[in-house]
Design goal:
397 residues; mainly alpha; 0% strand
Length: 397
């Protein structure tokens, strides 16, 4: 379909990537400041600091249930503006938080607000494109989006050094407002009036009920919950691992960026591999690889001192390479049986996997204090359960 919004396709891709990237920026830019924020709000343990990362995902899981149907009812653009408004308010709540509870509330609210641009971005692309052209645009948007985790921690560390941790939130507010203005000026509404669907909670409940009836959809959603949960443990504990356990405070942003490249490479290669081998084979192979790497680490370093940093990075890179092949394929496999209710089903499956991932990551993260061994034990357990679910899917569906 011919592009009829932003002046060029390149600008359209950049704008859609910007809408999604505010989410990654809000998560990753905060990582270097977790300890400093913990001191400011008087957290009791490093595990409490991890909640500043995991809780935003809870909001990101809940938000699509509201903003997905809302964008179908009132249009794409108003929904994005409402989401950014919620995000700005939530950011000020975080800036002025004096307790862990206040900060966690602000982070959850940030996630709910950011669910709007994140969800509506995909809807806009679907409004304008379909088939292979939609897949091509989504691939370009994803590649641009993946640049943010590479640069965000370094940006957060720079702001922390020249200002305070509050400055990270102020910069996030500024960037979100700039993206919102760009979106307002350059992007036309893509959902025409006659295609709008009145907002109704009954529609959400019916979508929930129908999604839950599909065993294949639920099976792959459960696997996604375990995989996302295990990855969230790393994401929330990465600052503690590299800065506290290994004393690599200055190198942390660069290490985080390097490992992000590992996931990005897998996502880039998946476009070619999935056509050749199929999604099911890619998921099976990647889960087995994820399990083997995790168990190998546990066997080699059980009841031993921490391995050298280059060994740890090698294991992390291998793990994240496997995870990079899982994210998109698991979501696509889960959505195959529910294409006729794709919008609601995407929100429902996203909520279920998030509601699984947050407690999984919070529980495992409590043990990642002085060693990375609990992290890989958690990886191993999540991989074993996921493979068990995969076997169940193949036998019963």
């Amino acid at each position: 379909m011919k592009l009829r919004t932003a002046r060029t396709q390149t600008e359209f891709i950049a704008l859609m990537a910007a809408l999604m990237s505010v989410t990654a920026l809000s998560i990753d830019a905060l990582l270097p400041a977790l300890d400093v924020i913990g001191v400011s709000i008087d957290t009791k343990s490093p595990a409490d600091n991890q909640l500043l990362v995991t809780m935003i995902f809870l909001g990101l899981g809940v938000g699509p249930l509201v903003f997905g149907p809302l964008s179908d009812a009132i249009g794409r653009k108003p929904s994005v503006y409402m989401g950014f408004a919620v995000f700005v308010i939530a950011s000020f709540i975080c800036v002025h938080a004096t307790s862990l509870e206040g900060m966690v509330f602000g982070r959850i609210l940030q996630g709910i607000g950011l669910a709007a641009p994140r969800t509506v971005c995909i809807a806009i692309i679907r409004d304008l494109y379909n088939g292979d052209e939609m897949a091509r645009i989504m691939s370009f948007v994803t590649v641009v989006f993946l640049l943010i985790p590479i640069v965000a921690p370094a940006m957060g560390k720079f702001i922390l050094e020249v200002y305070t941790w509050e400055g990270i939130f102020y910069v996030q507010i500024l960037i979100s407002m700039l993206v919102a203005v760009w979106f307002w000026i350059r992007q036309e509404e893509t959902l025409v009036q006659e295609h709008r669907i009145p907002f109704a909670f009954k529609r959400i409940l019916l979508g929930f009920r129908e999604t839950l009836r599909h065993k294949r959809t639920m099976g792959y959603t459960f696997i996604s919950g375990f995989i996302v949960g295990s990855f969230l443990v790393y994401l929330s504990a990465s600052q503690q691992i590299f800065e506290t356990q290994y004393g690599l405070t200055e190198a942390f942003p660069y290490i985080f960026a390097g490992l992000a490249v590992s996931i990005g490479l897998a996502i880039f290669l998946n476009g070619t591999f999935v056509i050749r081998f199929g999604m099911q084979r890619m998921v099976t192979t990647s889960l087995l690889g994820f399990l083997i790497v995790s168990v190998l680490y546990v066997v080699l370093f059980f009841n031993t001192p921490q391995p050298p940093i280059y060994i740890l990075l090698l294991f992390f890179a291998a793990q994240f390479f496997c995870i990079g092949f899982l994210f998109g394929n698991l979501r696509a496999l889960a959505m195959e049986p529910v294409g006729h209710i794709a919008g609601i089903a995407a929100a429902v499956t996203g909520l279920i996997s998030t509601l699984m991932a947050v407690p999984i990551s919070t529980f495992i993260g409590r043990f990642v204090v002085t060693s990375t061994l609990p992290l890989f034990l958690g990886f191993s357990l999540c991989a074993m359960i996921s493979i068990g679910i995969l076997i169940w899917i193949k036998r019963t569906v």
